Amino acid sequence: MSKKIEVCLTPALIDLYDIEDSIVVVIDILRATSSITYGIENGAEAIIPVANVEDCLKYADKGYLLAAERNGEVVNGYDFGNSPFSYTKEKVGGKTIVLTTTNGTKALHLANKRAYQVVIGAFLNLDSLCDYLQSQNKNVLLLCAGWKDQFNLEDTLFAGAVVNKLRKNFEHFDDSSVAAEDLYLLAKDDLRKYLHKSSHSNRLAELNIEDDVVFCLQLNTCSAIPVLEGERLVKLK
Questions:
Q1: Which of 67, 80, 204, 210 is the most exposed place for a label (fewest CB within 10 A)?
Q2: SS3 content of the chain, % helix, strand, coil (to 5)
Q3: Backbone CA torsion sign across 231, 232, 235, 237
Q4: Measured distance CA(68)–CA(150) in Å, rounded
Q5: What is the mean pLDDT of the chain?
Q6: What is the DSSP string of 90-143?
Q7: Contact (CB, 8 A) for 142 and 7
Q8: CA distances (Å), origin 121, targets 23, 57, 133, 151
Q9: pLDDT of 31-40, one tens digit each?
Q10: Coil, helix or strand for 208?
């Protein structure tokens, strides 16, 4: 089988792709998939992504941690949002977290409707993710969560990094993959400097969470690959 990689630049385009036999990598670098990866790395038992803030409340009596973010900020009344610094071993070890975010959890739900498998990608687990994708005899769709169904730079740069690492192992690439890889090659020597151009980076800067941005751009600090099993994200065995 000749394997292909495609990049879906926004969840609004996912219906254009045949993903029934594909591993879909959901990407929301700032910050949902980075925080999910870090949380699973740090021993979270599971992370349950839900679409709406109200959906979190359905789990309130189960003893789970409830995490809700909208427009970059923690929703009032919830344990935390999607800052990676909330997903330390001390806070999430052995715990189940119910999470809703502006972009990432929406992308997860869209992928889960049709994909063969859904996994989580971040710069934090880039190498382990690529090793896994290379080992599977499956097509890959890199799904960028974007910003409210629009294109964004940081997710596309990560998609480009994956394409760049896997180029020798896959035979077919779409134009979105080519463009994403070209952007990554432009930016890779200083991702943070390049992302100063991005709208979401500027939004987060206004919230005074530059430390989060820098954290999410670290390479290969985690080996865990979160995988969606039913409604729960758990560590890929």
A1: 210
A2: 45, 20, 35
A3: negative
A4: 21
A5: 94
A6: HHHTT-EEEEE-SSHHHHHHHHHTT-SEEEEE-GGGHHHHHHHHHHSSSEEEEE
A7: yes
A8: 12, 27, 11, 17
A9: 999 999 999 9
A10: coil
